[in-house]
Design brief:
The protein is an alpha+beta fold and 299 residues long. It folds into two domains: 4-122, 2-Layer Sandwich (Phosphorylase Kinase, domain 1), CATH 3.30.200.20; 127-298, Transferase(Phosphotransferase), domain 1, CATH 1.10.510. The chain has twelve helices and twelve strands. The chain has a five-stranded antiparallel beta sheet. The protein has a three-stranded antiparallel beta sheet with strand order 6-8-11. Strand 1 and strand 2 (16-22) form a beta hairpin. Helix 6 packs antiparallel against helix 8 and helix 6 (138-157) runs antiparallel to helix 12 (283-298). It is globular. The N and C termini lie far apart (49 Å).
C-alpha cells in the first residue's frame, strides 16, 4: 500500500501510531523499531504456520491474535490490512515511563540505533473513550459497558487475555449502525462502536508459553482482571475510593454510608456496580442486565 503520513495520532513506550492516507482513505500506521536479527528472522516467517511456530515472541503474538480475532469480530477490535518489515530512519519518542525504568531505557537505547521497523496498517478509530465519556448519556454508557464486556468475552472464550485494558487502549468509532447483535440481542449503538486495541501484552493458551507464563495463566485469573480493570480505570477513572469499594463489592462486603453516598456523583448507580461486580465471571449476565436497563429507559 502506498500512503502519505499526515500526522501523529499517539505514541507509547514501544510504538508510535500515525494517521496515513492512501487512495483518499485514511488508516492508522503503527510503527515500532525492531532489532536487525528480528528483521532477518521475521522477513521470511510471516506465513500462518511460521507465525504459529514463533508465538514465544511478542511480535508474532500480536500478528497472530489480530489475524485470528478479525475472523470472528471486526466491530470491537483493530482490523489489520497490511504489515511490513523494512529499513527506516524512525526514532521512537522517549516516554517518562521508559526514562524511569532502567531495563526499558536500556532496550530503548539499543533500539534507537537499529535501522529496522515493523509497520502495521490498520483501520482508524475516532479517539479514546475518555475523550467522550462525560458527554455520553446513561444509555450510551450502558451500551459502552455491553460492548467492551462483550469484546473481553470474545477474547476470553477463545483463550486470549488482553492484560493491558487501561483507558487509553479503549477506543470509539462513530457509526451509522443503529444496533449490533450481541448474544442474539439487538444492542443499540447510540452512534458509537467501542473497541479494544494494543495487543502487545496479550497472552493465550494458543501461544508457546514460558514456564512462568504457563504458571501465571494456569493459576491466575486474567479473565477477572481484564473485566474489573475496565470498570476501575474507564468507568471510575482509577478513583482510589472506588477501587476500595469495588473490592468490597466483589467480596460481598457491606459498604459504609459515605461509600454509598459517592455514587451520587458517578455515571452508574450502586445497584448497577454491585451487579457487575458480583457477576464478574459471567459476562452474558452483565450484558443482559445492562441491555434490560436500556430497554427500561426507552419506555
Amino acid at each position: 500500500m502506498k500512503y502519505e503520513i499526515k500526522n501523529i495520532l499517539g505514541s507509547g513506550s514501544s510504538a508510535t501510531t500515525f494517521l496515513i492516507k492512501s487512495k483518499n482513505k485514511y488508516y492508522a500506521l503503527r510503527r515500532q523499531k525492531i532489532f536487525k536479527n528480528e528483521f532477518i528472522e521475521f522477513k521470511d516467517n510471516f506465513t500462518h504456520d511460521k507465525i504459529l511456530e514463533n508465538t514465544d515472541k511478542s511480535l508474532y503474538r500480536l500478528i497472530y491474535f489480530n489475524k485470528f480475532i478479525n475472523t470472528i469480530n471486526k466491530n470491537h477490535f483493530t482490523i489489520i490490512y497490511e504489515y511490513n518489515i523494512d529499513k527506516c530512519k524512525f526514532i521512537q519518542p522517549l516516554t517518562d515511563w521508559v526514562q524511569n525504568n532502567p531495563n526499558a531505557l536500556k532496550k530503548y537505547n539499543e533500539l534507537t540505533d537499529s535501522k529496522y521497523c515493523l509497520d502495521i496498517i490498520t483501520d482508524i478509530k475516532d479517539g479514546i473513550i475518555n475523550d467522550i465519556l462525560y458527554s455520553l448519556n446513561i444509555e450510551q454508557v450502558y451500551s459502552l459497558i455491553i460492548q467492551i464486556v462483550f469484546a473481553f468475552h470474545l477474547m476470553h472464550s477463545n483463550g486470549f487475555y488482553h492484560r493491558d485494558g487501561h483507558s487509553t487502549n479503549l477506543m470509539y468509532k462513530k457509526t451509522s449502525l443503529k444496533t449490533i447483535k450481541i448474544f442474539g440481542m439487538n444492542i443499540p449503538t447510540f452512534g458509537y462502536l467501542y473497541s479494544l486495541i494494543d495487543y502487545g501484552d496479550t497472552i493465550s493458551t494458543k501461544f508457546k508459553l514460558s514456564h512462568s507464563e504457563m504458571v501465571a495463566i494456569t493459576y491466575g485469573n486474567y479473565k477477572y482482571e481484564d473485566i474489573i480493570r475496565f470498570l476501575n480505570e474507564c468507568i471510575f477513572h482509577s478513583d482510589k475510593i472506588f477501587i476500595k469499594i469495588i473490592n468490597k463489592l466483589i467480596n460481598n462486603e457491606k459498604l459504609e454510608f459515605y461509600e454509598l453516598e459517592v455514587f451520587k456523583y458517578k455515571r452508574i448507580t450502586f445497584e448497577d456496580t454491585k451487579y457487575y461486580c458480583l457477576n464478574i465471571n459471567d459476562p452474558k449476565k452483565i450484558i443482559k442486565y445492562f441491555y434490560k436497563l436500556i430497554k427500561l429507559k426507552k419506555k
